[in-house]
Design goal:
By secondary structure, the chain is α/β, with parallel strands linked by helices. About 40% of the residues lie in helices and about 15% in strands.
């Protein structure tokens, strides 16, 4: 079915907006697909609890051994680590955009991807190609085999381990000068913390991955501040009081210089969600423009700009024009992204309580009283009642669906939680059919918001791309 056939009669093809992503995996290279399957073969899904526990506790040691076997490729570039419960990807994208606008060869590592594994690894202006990914994974095979033989001591390799090492190797081969690396889970014990950062960023801290990081904000923040090092700048975003105190203690304990949003730098705007805004840090920028929407994105941009200022103070030249251009040119799909204009359809990958709260705040400020229909899908590992407690007050109804990810939560289970949260809802198992169902019921001023996981966001973006490929442009 073409998109024109799928759309209700009132929706025009030209209302579908372009977005910037790598092309979908075309499936033309069997070697590429074999490489991706090889990476996912290290998934923890089928391991015993004891194996999973050992893999978690020895992540940094295991990564250090693996990188040593690969010839310490991380020594070829300088690293910036980005941690936090919310906003990691956006901060990584903005800082990468600023540094690239400044003329640096920059690498960017983020996860998860929306629909192509290649999205995770971007270096020197482009995404890793299929051929590069295949070649670099082959170059790692001997080292991977050696580490696997030490699994009783180091714990089994994980998919994230392999992807992180692959990224570091790719950065070195691409001759990047700076690698902006998104932390996986936590900070102190994450595989990315085997790298030695010259600067670190920490976004808002909330309760997520509590089985690994702890049940209090103090415990989680203590893990996050593990990305600090003696003598480096650590720039942090908006925090709850308990988390901020733990971050301050952790930074002081290792002798890092802490720079806090709201204390050392900040932003202001007539409209907190969209339009021009002003940033005040070491310098002052007025009339800043960005395609990113929402108060939370102003926070994320400010953290990235403050980090750029600190890098400049360290001796990395960056002009005011580069910082301004980087903020204006950043592309970060799936985060309060308008993908269809009529009827207005927004995709947002909010997948924990902290990000759901930010989404709800943006809905109130950006959309006002317009009726919202959620197309909602979540994963097994998330606190679904907590997420729904934030989203239910701003939605008229929810259509529950399931992403293609293996850990997608059964829609019937989400349905029960959604009804308990007070939402009127029903199940439509297919993401594309769920969006069509929302459109069919949408009033003239209504808004459809696809949310609950980045995997669901990716499914919907891939469907729209397939239906209207001419609406897509490519820009790293």
């Amino acid at each position: 079915m073409s998109l024109v056939e799928a759309l209700p009669p009132t929706i025009a093809r030209e209302s579908i907006r372009p977005w910037d992503l790598p092309p979908p995996d075309p499936g033309e290279s069997p070697e590429y697909w074999a490489a991706v399957r090889r990476i996912y073969a290290y998934s923890e899904a089928h391991r015993t609890p004891a194996e999973v526990a050992l893999a978690q506790t020895r992540k940094i040691d295991r990564m250090r051994v693996l990188l040593q076997l690969l010839g310490t490729p991380q020594a070829a570039f300088s690293t910036i680590l980005v941690a936090g419960t919310k906003g990691k990807g956006s901060m990584t994208a903005v800082l990468t955009s600023i540094l690239a606008a400044g003329g640096y060869r920059v690498g960017r590592y983020t996860q998860p991807h929306l629909y192509s594994y290649r999205e995770r690894i971007w270096a020197a202006g482009d995404y890793v190609t299929e051929a590069e990914l295949v070649d670099e994974l082959e170059a790692m095979e001997d080292a991977l085999a050696i580490v696997e033989r030490q699994r009783s001591e180091l714990g089994p390799l994980t998919t994230f381990d392999v992807g992180t090492a692959l990224t570091v190797l790719h950065f070195a081969r691409a001759r990047v000068q700076l690698g902006v690396v998104e932390v996986g889970v936590g900070g102190a014990n994450d595989a990315t913390n085997a790298l030695e950062p010259i600067s670190s960023l920490v976004g808002p801290v909330g309760l997520d991955h509590v089985q690994l990081l702890g049940n209090s904000l103090t415990e989680v923040a203590t893990q996050k501040i593990g990305v600090a090092r003696r003598g480096i700048d650590v720039v942090i975003g908006a925090q709850e009081t308990e988390a901020r105190a733990a971050l301050q203690v952790g930074a002081a304990a290792v002798g890092a210089r802490l720079h806090e949003l709201g204390k050392d730098f900040g932003w202001s705007a007539d409209d907190p969600c969209s339009g021009p805004f002003e940033f005040r840090g070491q310098g002052c920028w007025s009339e800043l423009d960005t395609p990113l929407v929402g108060r939370f994105q102003r926070d994320n941009i400010s953290v990235a700009m403050a980090a750029a200022e600190r890098l400049r103070a360290q001796g990395w030249p960056l002009s005011d024009e580069a910082i301004r251009a980087g903020v204006a040119q950043v592309h970060w799909p799936g985060r309060f992204q308008s993908v269809v204009l009529d009827p207005l359809t927004i995709v947002d990958g909010a997948h924990n309580q902290t990000s759901a709260r930010a989404l709800a705040e943006t809905i109130r400020e950006y959309l006002g009283d317009r009726p919202v229909t959620l197309v909602l899908g979540m994963t097994d590992t998330k606190d679904i009642p907590a997420i729904l407690s934030e989203l239910a007050p701003v939605a008229r109804e929810a259509i529950i669906t399931r992403s293609s990810h293996p850990q997608g939560r059964a829609p019937e289970e989400v349905l029960v939680a959604a009804r308990n949260a007070g939402l009127s809802c029903r199940v439509v198992p297919s993401p594309s059919e769920a969006v069509l169902a929302a459109w069919a019921e949408q009033r003239n001023d209504g808004v459809t918001i696809v949310t609950g996981s980045l995997f669901l966001a990716g499914d919907v973006l891939a469907w729209l791309r397939q239906m209207a490929p001419e609406a897509v442009t490519r820009n790293g």
